[in-house]
Amino acid sequence: MRRLILLLLIPMLACNGSDTPPPSTPTLNPATETSAPPTAIPTTPFPTEVPSTDPPPTLPGVTAFPDPNAYTWQLVASGLERPLDLQPDGSGRLYIVEKLGHIHIFQDGQVSETPFLNIEDRVNDNSNEMGLLGLAFHPNYSQNGFFYVNYTGSGGNTSISRFQANGDSVDPNSEMILLTVAQPFPNHNGGVVTFGPDGYLYLGLGDGGAAGDPFGNGQSLDTLLGKILRIDVDSAEPYAIPPDNPFGDEIWHYGLRNPWRISFDKLTDDLYIGDVGQNAWEEIDFLEAGTPGGANFGWDYREGAHDYEGNGPDGLIEPIAEYSHPEGGCSVTGGFVYRGSMPEWNGIYLYADYCTGLVWGLIRSGDSWQNQLLFQTNQRITSFGQDESGELYLISDGGEIFRLTGN
After folding, report:
1. Is 62 exposed, middle or buried (0-12, 13-18, 19+ CB in 10 A)?
2. 318: which DSSP letter?
3. At residue 75, what are phi and psi to the nearest 5 degrees?
4. Is 20 helix (H, G, I), strand (E, B) or coil?
5. Beta bridge partners of 177
């Protein structure tokens, strides 16, 4: 297991904008309504569609976007303290992660008053991008009670830890720290922790912060920063390295700046990555199910589909969509492919911008991708959530949770 010496951290989604609180109004409006997000909406189409060179796939799902005016984001929970993740445990219940170090159970429209887990005593949230950042339940959670979190702790360093639940509560002393990654700056921590369709645990770590990747972490294979990691938490304690990891260590993919949120399509197992940009371009990356490890997404040779340092090697993975800061905001929030009860949304990947509250959709169409701006909201969207039925939720930094539903 590699031990790293790295950076510290700053704003929540690696946003380059200010950390002002979002408006308190909980209504979210389709993009064609008159309510505007915090910044003006351009009249030109965006994000930019990046053509794919892959052969046309056979995918289950729609081929055109539904009319967003027929749908809304319904408020389902409020009064939370800076929520930034929502995860199911396999029982029908949802769990809401608060940046300060709490996890609450959300069941039957109610948020538990007493936290399921409270680790505020060890969570360092001194900057906007620090705190309790991610949650994943073990596939066999109902039997073993194991779940995993990503948080910044002492010195702002990243901790990946396992806890064990006992009913509706967790003893904070049940923590087993799997991995600690030193952080040189207080931003670009990543934060996602999720199980893949192969049963391995995937972790998203940013490049360590500051600006412009000053230590070259994104491209270096001597550090875990700027990577998606993949570990086996079942074969050994604290974990084992999967035998097909390409470099013989935790690294699965590299060349990322700040993969704040990644997700696997529940139906196809395809991987989607929302990678936060430097100061010009935000991007969504994609890999088909079965793609081996070792993909290089280009940072910091490239920001989005554009040269940053330049002179990169051949074989860099180009984004499937991007948008510039003047067009769409400051910090991409990766989402999920919808697989819920509304067939007209089946197969659409939804993602957003933290600063403007804009929400877009992506559909794979043959050898290219369709993009469409679907909703403009007045929320600072920290994350999306998906329940066991494939329904999608939107999480606002202002303390609200919304669910996509028909009018």
Report:
1. middle
2. P
3. -65, 125
4. coil
5. 161
Please name which of 4, 357, 349 lies closest in space to residue 205, comparing C-alpha atoms. 4
- pLDDT tens digit sequence for 166-188: 989 899 999 999 999 999 998 99
Residue 104 CB neighbour total at 10 angstroms? 23
Parallel, antiparallel, or unpaired for β 117-118 and 227-231?
unpaired
d(CA 317, CA 272): 13
Helix, strand, coil percent content, the chain, rounded in steps of 5: 5, 40, 55
pLDDT in tens, 115-152: 999 999 999 998 889 999 999 999 999 999 999 999 99
380 burial type by CB count under 10 A (0-12 exposed, 13-18 middle, 19+ buried): buried
Contacts of 61 (CB under 8 A, 6+ apart): 337, 346, 347, 348, 363
3-state secondary structure of 349: strand
* pLDDT value of residue 59: 52
pLDDT at 68 (0 to 100): 98
Three-state DSSP at 230 gives strand
How far is Cα 92 from Cα 108, in angstroms, rounded to an integer?
10
Q: Look at residue 57 and give its three-state secondary structure.
A: coil
Residue 3: pLDDT band (50, 70, 90) is very low
Helix (H) or strand (E) holding 142: helix 141-144
In the block, residue with structure tokens 């445990």: 89
Q: For residue range 340-357, list pLDDT tens digits in order.
A: 999 999 999 999 999 999
29-406 has which CATH code? 2.120.10.30
Write down the domain spans for the chain: 29-406
Is residue 300 within 8 Å of residue 213, measured between CB atoms?
A: yes
**DSSP letter, residue 357:** -
Q: Across-strand partners of 204?
A: 228
Q: In sequence order, what are the residues at sequence separation of 6 or more whose Cβ sits closer than 8 angstroms to the Cβ of residue 167?
A: none
- State residue 17's pLDDT score: 38
Length of the chain (residues): 407
Contact 376, 72 (CB under 8 A): no
Q: Please say if the pLDDT value at position 40 is more than 60.
A: no
Kindly state the tokens that stand for 99: 């940046």
Average pLDDT over residues 237-243: 97
Residue among 45, 28, 48, 50 at smallest CA distance from 37: 28
| Contact of 396 with 346, CB cutoff 8 Å | no
Q: State how far the Cα of 56 lies from the Cα of 44, in Å rounded to an integer.
A: 27
Q: How many CB atoms lie within 10 A of CB 207?
A: 35
